[in-house]
Design brief:
This protein is of the alpha/beta class. It contains 23 helices and 18 strands.
Length: about 525
């Protein structure tokens, strides 16, 4: 075989174009044309296939496909959900709290690693996640902002400006939706409030108010803590921050300023330790320039005669160092620690501070209450006007219902949808009291371990209503008690036979067969 025919043979063999020359053997000219066709088409195919593969692997193309699939998935959702913008520490805590209550959520975050982390979480409900910029209206719409089942938007990013943009976009594109925002700047808070943001949560102001409440009324502060705990949380003991003496605040940033203002208003003596007063600003009272991690700085702040210490910098290592150094100089200090990172929980617990301020937990708990049990938020606002003795009595009643875990708080709406059996009974002209509803449907001789905290009727709130109060249609009642009490009460609210058993003691047969047998026994 000469060189030309050898080249021809290798060409169609290596390119797997085909075998044989049909219907007759090719001439040399035909074979030359076949060689040209082979190499021309192979180059075109290789280029085309390479281009398609490169396109499929292109990040922009992949993101477009993911975005399209996500938007279709959200459009097909058939259960109400909340749109969570930002899956940092706060967003993660909130999503877990919502799913624990069998509520649904959709997450959008600008960092892909956080969205991937969401997929690995062991949550009770499936939570769709999307890597996108929540500041862009298009991404918010794809995440379900205008979905008819979207009940609210929570802007929880670590940027005040981003949260402001999310709130504005949400209110403009969906005016009736509930918008909850995180903010730690008073200017941003005022801007958010100006266009109707429903709830604005500042973790630093919230904790400072909680501290002031604990100083004035420890039982009232403990009541707020117990009612805001999650299902699996353990009951905590009351704390008694010193109401007289010197307090030392290390760190005069956003948190330090909020605590400083509250302590000064309580008439306490306060000394501030700040490393960069030119950046943070200077308090009106005396201050010491330094980090507070050194003994000399703390001694200059009179730590030896202080009664309280606030380690409030934005660095967990520095805060721990401040506490350890201060305790060597004064072991009787009441210590407040600012925790910045959730994954530092083990070392934070080891330092055994009297109060710990973790912004993500504060925000998540507040939003969980707002979205889960709206009446609870109103109840907490109203009890702030009660005295400490009133709160102590209520705490004693709650502690008698639960053992170690936090009490369950739930809301009952007397409507056809939520309380069919009760509404039917009242509609027939009968009367029903709160005490009747608190009867155990399994044994009418016992009471369910729960307390009616508040009644809402005709735009009026009644704290701790009496058990003999008669319920009316469209009433809303806030209950607190053991977890199983909610489930059994729901049985009474919806099941007419269970309600009849509570009221009369007669257990009616439910099925057709049992009713026939019962009728035969009677005859």
């Amino acid at each position: 075989m000469d060189i030309f025919h050898a080249f021809y043979f290798v060409s169609f063999m290596s390119s797997t174009i085909g075998f044989g020359e049909i219907p007759y053997a090719f001439t040399s000219g035909q074979r030359l044309w076949v060689i040209f066709s082979i190499f021309f088409t192979v180059v075109v195919w290789l280029y085309s296939i390479g281009t398609v593969l490169a396109l499929l692997k292109d990040e922009t193309f992949q993101n477009a496909l993911t975005e399209r699939r996500f938007a279709k998935q959200i459009s097909r959702m058939c259960e109400s959900f909340y749109l969570i913008c930002g899956y940092g520490q706060t967003g993660e805590a909130l999503v877990k709290a919502l799913t624990d209550r069998n509520q649904h959520a959709v997450v959008i975050d600008i960092l892909e690693d956080r969205v991937n982390l969401l997929k690995l979480e062991n949550l009770r409900e499936y939570v769709p996640g999307f890597c996108g910029d929540a500041r862009l209206p298009a991404h918010l719409l794809e995440a379900g902002l205008n979905h008819p089942l979207c009940e609210g938007v929570a802007a929880l990013t670590n940027s005040n400006e981003a949260n402001l943009k999310i709130a504005i976009t949400s209110k403009l594109l969906h005016p009736d939706i509930e918008v909850i925002c995180r903010a730690d700047s008073h200017d941003i808070e005022n801007n958010m409030a100006s266009f109707g943001t429903d709830y604005i949560i500042d973790p630093f102001d919230a904790f400072a108010l909680h501290l002031a409440t604990a100083i004035q009324a420890p039982c009232l502060s403990l009541l707020q803590d117990w009612l805001s705990l999650g299902k699996r949380d353990m009951l905590n003991d009351p704390v008694y921050p010193p109401s007289k003496g010197l307090w030392v605040i290390c760190g005069y940033g956003r948190f330090g300023k909020a605590v400083y203002d509250k302590l000064v208003r309580e008439g306490l003596e306060v000394v501030v330790v700040e490393a960069e007063p030119d950046l943070t600003g200077k308090p009106q009272s005396p201050f010491i320039k330094g980090r507070g991690t050194e003994a000399d700085t703390l001694l200059e702040a009179n730590i030896e005669r202080a009664v309280g210490l606030v380690a409030g910098t934005d660095n967990d290592a520095n805060n721990l160092s401040i506490i350890m150094t201060a305790r060597e100089l004064n072991s009787d200090l009441f210590v407040i620690l600012r925790q910045n990172l959730k994954h530092n929980d083990p070392v934070i617990q080891a330092v055994n501070a009297d109060m710990v301020m973790l912004p993500s937990d504060i925000i998540a708990n507040r939003i969980r209450v707002l979205l889960g049990v709206p009446m609870q938020h109103q109840f907490v606002k109203l009890v702030m006007h009660q005295d400490d003795e009133w709160a102590c009595q209520l705490i004693s009643r709650i502690s008698a219902l639960v053992t170690h875990h936090a009490p369950e708080v739930w809301e009952v709406a007397f409507s056809e949808h939520d309380s069919h059996a009760v509404c039917s009974y009242v509609r027939r002209g009968n009367q029903l009291s709160l005490g009747d509803l608190m009867t155990d449907p399994r044994d009418r001789s016992t009471k369910l371990p729960c307390i009616p905290l508040m009644l809402f009727r005709h735009n009026d709130y009644i704290l701790l209503p009496e058990e003999d109060l008669k319920v009316q249609k469209d009433d809303h009642v806030l209950f607190c008690g053991a977890l199983y009490a909610e489930n059994r009460m729901d049985w009474t609210l919806q099941n007419e036979n269970a309600l009849n058993y509570i009221l009369t003691g007669e257990a009616r047969p439910e099925g057709w067969i049992w009713r026939r047998l019962r009728k035969r026994e009677v005859t």
